[in-house]
Input
Amino acid sequence: MTRRITPRRAEGTVKVPGSRSVTNRALVVSSLAGGISRLRSVAVCDDSRSMVDGLRALGIDIRPDGDDLIVDSTSGLARSGARIWAQASGTTARFLTAVAALCRTNVSIDGEERLRNRPLAPLTRALREMGADVDGDALPIIIDGRRLAGGSVSVDASLSSQFVSALAMIAPALGDGLAVSWHQLASRPFVEATIEVMGAFGVTPTLERQTLTVRAGQRYAPGDLSVPPDVALAVYPALAAAVTGGRVMMPRVGRDRLQPDLMVFDVLGRMGCAVDWTPDGVSIQGPAELKAVDVDMGDAPDGALVVAVAAAFAMGASRISGLGTLAFKESDRFSGIVEGLRALGARVEPTDDAMVVIGGIRHGDAVDAHDDHRMAMVFSVAGLAQEGISVVGDRSVTKTWPDFYRDMTALVGDGWAIEVATPTARVSGAMDVIAIDGPGGSGKTTVSKALASALGVAHLDTGAFYRAITLEALRRGAEGEALAELARVVDVRYEDGNVFLASENVSNEIRGDAVDRHVSAVSAVPSVRREMVRRQQEWVADHGGRAVVEGRDIGTVVFPNARLKVFLIARPEVRARRRARDMPDTGVDSVEKELRRRDELDSSRATSPLAPAEDAVVLDTSDLSVEQVVATIVSML
Output
């Protein structure tokens, strides 16, 4: 996705979502409280969903109640194996690594590629020192639950304060207390925020210069916590006011010492903005001309992105230091901000942990957000003050502020100031899609995967969506009208050929007999198909609009404007033999009977029946190898 921004003065009021940082800490702490807690006005974003999914996998009952979450930890942590998919959330991966060490069972944790590259080893080493059995020092890891010992432990916290926070939050569950020490601590205020959240649930750690101590005998108690607006997000509307000379009001945003990015408002004040704190919130008025600044952002390094962009619009040279951890975030933010500002003509002189930004954005250009939510937001705001800026990878804002662009239109009017250039997939069905349709056993999956690999594009098995919905329906006993709601709310993801329900990898389970017997009936429900088609179209759009997509209605319904449509067939006995190879306990005759039953159901359903598109090429694979089929399709292209 590429987002083009049209300059416009920011004026108005914007509601800032709840703090992701406080939400995720409160979720962990309340999950260890042994009772029922209420978390009010929580963050609703990819990171908080990832944390909720991970804690559910560990046996915690978490359910929504309006804008609140009810956390029921009465039954305690999981007593059987769990698999956690942390997506791209660093707090989920790190905090739940520590929580998983409390489980007397086997827990695996993994996440997206960029999360696999983020530091984790200091935490796993500390947990091993405390008695945990942890296989791996970077995701994916496997934790084999054992009783952890308290006492004292040292951790390298120079790259992330989250290592200290993770250990602190599990300390009350150890029984004999814990003292966590370090030599150098990144972003100390985030540890102070952890202490505040722990205090809301009855535990009061002490924080000295290089040690955090949780006394023996302290236990969490269920609580009721209101999550404040996220100051780490409020800095972006504040930046909009600063660089456009506008005025922005943010209700309920206060001087919350739980949130280190508060210092960004102080820095913008030094740069000439008028910042007015009231009981109702904060307003910020941008000046006619921003001033240069010399500031250490070590306690709030993510906020340095905002300061750097403001500095690029200021008069003079600004020095921003304390940036040593920026390279180890969701992306290499240090290199990214330098690269982005230079693309816009600004002079930036980086050193090891600091940069000098000499004011002067000279022109617009495309800026790569590197799939990083903060990079996308900060350069999108820059586009409000400079003509011609576009941001590649804007969809990453869903990690922390899913409605960022919609909410920001309240400040820039009618949505005209923020225009989105969407790939064809969003509108007319992905002209670069290759649609592979056909009945079971015709070779769709094997061929489409090999074709995608040969062409170097994404591969999507749309049938996996329907199988995952069917599995969840069987688990919940959902049928009839309940299937429509289930299809709308269930969290299904298809990643690297694996299928996930929330954080659980169900790739093997969706191929079971029970799902085979029921998937056609579930797939035939019109509301289910409509929702799955929407998700499949979005999946392809999110992968650049270029993919090999397999299924039973790709060329007719999902992508009717696909670049090439191929409908694979094979003789019934050939299809049965192929399927039987994957089902060693089932005879060929039984498989053939089941295939005929599925064909009849799929071809006779009222919505999206199995049939070749009028412009599809029908290809009989009965006597062809996979390589021959792929070569034939490539020649068609």
